[in-house]
């Protein structure tokens, strides 16, 4: 991780990041290997165990074909190609096992394709059936991974559909995302206070993002500052002044999503509302005061929180700066993707599935445990690479990149 602080110190902690660097603690002693594919064979032999998508996917940026699923040097590569096929400008690959599986421990070791707008997935899904079965049509995303280092776990019930008043269809969905090297709330406490009339937050993130409740606090002798997610933060500590909400503060920005100004959400006192940036170009928000202020701490939230209280769409790169002698100088710089790039190193994603629970793992560490309420039928194992419209900007340098799979394994209880 690249963390640089010139005027102050950023205290960044992440238990998930710490877990990532430790050895796997998953206990295999209770399990026996029942099936595996390590892709140590010729490309033509992939068809013995796997089916392949051969069609367009108009909800995606790409169509998907068998030619994009290629076994090379003991790995399965799901290739991205910039080529016109199936009515689209890009192609990728998606495969699933001919064999179906049920309860057990599922594990896959793979690298992400190195770029935004990629969906790097290891998942289970029942195929539509004509005959009734013991369970519902469901999907379990063991990891729907997004570059550079987001792990996304999802459980979808596709059988129970509700039609909303606006005509849209909704199904029960239970999602949780994990970010390695980025977090939803930051408190940047300065070791040496700075005096300035301008503070700004800036990011080169290529797609839009959300930043919420930006606080610029005065110097407190005790060195104690409120919790970032406290809804009463400005009143939590005697003598605290939030300059961002002062009457002489003005706010300007690079723009807002759909040209609907939302900068006021940065200073409305609600840590769960936010400024949503424009889609393209550099993103920045600037605070200016008529007289110099002395800054001891800066706080803000990163991303947005959904109805299940999960934080979504965290960004991994930003700068917080102050203006001095006509030049912008760094207070804190974060580039959390630099040393946490899941396209550079293999990681292992796992799921323990039984009739009572679903337990998700990352590199042998438990990430999430939830009750199993509708996943009771056999399903193939799926490996898929997609180019998606909702997770970044599609760039030409994706051409030739791949999701690379080392192995897939299925264990049963002894």
How many domains is the backbone divided into? Answer: 2
Distance between the termini: 41 Å
Name of the CATH class of the largest domain? Mainly Beta
Largest beta sheet, briefly?
Answer: 9 strands, antiparallel
- The counted number of beta strands is 32
Q: What percentage of amino acids are in beta strands? A: over 45%
Q: Note the overall shape.
A: elongated
With helices defined by DSSP (H or I, 4 residues minimum), what is the helix count? 1
Estimated structural class: mainly beta
Instruction: Could you tell me the CATH topology label of the largest domain.
Output: Jelly Rolls
The mean pLDDT is 90
Estimated helix fraction = under 10%
- The Rg value, from CA coordinates, equals 24 Å
| Unreliable residue runs | 1-22
CATH architecture of the largest domain: Sandwich
Can you walk through the features of this model?
- The chain is mostly beta strands.
- It folds into two domains: 34-170 and 355-413, Jelly Rolls; 183-335, no CATH class.
- Helix content is 2%, strand content 48%.
- Strands 1, 2, 19, 20, 21, 22, 23, 26 and 27 form a nine-stranded antiparallel beta sheet that branches.
- β7 (69-72) and β8 (75-79) form a beta hairpin.
- The two termini are 41 Å apart.
- The model is unreliable at 1-22 (pLDDT under 50).
Label this structure with key terms.
eight-stranded antiparallel β-sheet; nine-stranded antiparallel β-sheet; 2 domains; 414 residues; Jelly Rolls; mainly beta; elongated; 1 helix
């Amino acid at each position: 991780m690249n963390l640089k602080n010139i005027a102050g110190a950023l205290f960044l902690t992440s238990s998930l990041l710490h877990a990532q660097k430790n050895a796997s603690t998953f206990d295999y002693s209770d399990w026996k290997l029942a099936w595996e594919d390590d892709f140590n064979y010729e490309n033509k032999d992939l068809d013995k165990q796997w089916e392949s998508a051969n069609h367009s996917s108009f909800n995606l940026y790409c169509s998907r074909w068998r030619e994009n699923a290629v076994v090379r040097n003991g790995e399965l590569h799901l290739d991205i190609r910039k080529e016109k096929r199936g009515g689209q400008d890009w192609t990728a690959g998606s495969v699933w096992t001919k064999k179906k599986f049920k309860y057990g421990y599922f594990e896959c070791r793979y690298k992400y394709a190195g770029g935004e707008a990629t969906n790097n997935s290891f998942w289970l899904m029942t195929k539509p059936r004509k005959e009734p079965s013991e369970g519902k049509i469901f999907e379990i995303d063991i990891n729907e991974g997004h570059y550079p280092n987001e792990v996304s776990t999802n459980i979808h019930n596709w059988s129970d559909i509700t039609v909303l008043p606006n005509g849209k269809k909704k199904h029960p969905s239970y999602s949780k995302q994990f970010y390695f090297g980025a977090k939803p709330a930051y408190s940047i406490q300065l070791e040496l206070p700075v005096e300035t009339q301008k503070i700004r937050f800036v990011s080169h993130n290529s797609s839009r993002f959300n930043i919420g409740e930006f606080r610029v606090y005065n110097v407190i002798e005790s060195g104690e500052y409120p919790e970032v997610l406290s809804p009463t933060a400005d009143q939590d500590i005697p003598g605290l002044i939030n300059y961002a909400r002062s009457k002489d503060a003005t706010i300007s920005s690079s723009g807002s999503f759909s040209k609907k100004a939302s900068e006021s959400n940065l200073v409305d006192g609600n840590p769960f509302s936010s400024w949503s940036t424009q889609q393209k170009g550099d993103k920045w928000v600037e605070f200016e005061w008529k007289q110099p202020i002395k800054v001891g701490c800066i706080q803000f939230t990163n991303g947005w929180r959904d109805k299940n209280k999960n934080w979504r769409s965290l960004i991994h790169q930003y700068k917080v700066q102050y203006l001095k002698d006509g030049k912008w100088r760094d207070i804190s710089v974060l580039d959390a993707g630099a040393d946490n790039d899941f396209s550079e190193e293999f990681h292992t994603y796992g799921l323990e599935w039984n009739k009572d629970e679903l337990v998700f793992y990352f590199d042998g560490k438990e990430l999430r445990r939830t009750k199993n309420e509708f996943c009771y039928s056999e399903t193939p194992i799926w490996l898929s690479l997609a180019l998606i419209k909702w997770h970044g900007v599609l760039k030409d340098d994706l051409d030739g990149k791949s999701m690379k799979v080392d192995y897939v394994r299925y264990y049963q209880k002894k």
